[in-house]
Amino acid sequence: MPTEPNQPNPQPEKSPAVQRGDRILAGQHEPVEAVLALVDELKQERKFWLGRKLLDRYAEREEVRQHPDARLRRKFGQQRALCTYKDPDLPAEERLDRALGLLGAADPLDNACQAKAGWERVVSFLGESSRDGMAA
Fold this sequence. Notes:
There is one protein chain. By secondary structure, this protein is an all-alpha fold. 69% of the residues lie in helices and 0% in strands. It has one domain (16-135). The chain is flat. The model is unreliable at 129-136 (pLDDT under 50).
């Protein structure tokens, strides 16, 4: 019997949310509210890297920076910080620093409380990392 040639495993099919995110990164325009809804879907799929890229792409757009709803602007910044913090493509220290900066920019009025809590998390994380490295 003839044997079949080895075929590489096909790539898993992308979810509709990932496909839509790819189209937006390729240039398709969506309103900021739709992008936030898509990021919620991507977070459910644990695709934080794609959520971060989408939010980074939209961050400097006038429709985000000048949006009349302050709650939407705050949510945008908070979601951007969360996706940055959980993005496995970024080194741990970089994503912590970036996420803290994004949180501070998202809600400057509450910046002092966030910074204190954020730095406590950073110190805790770095302490755990050094202990993990010592145990290895």
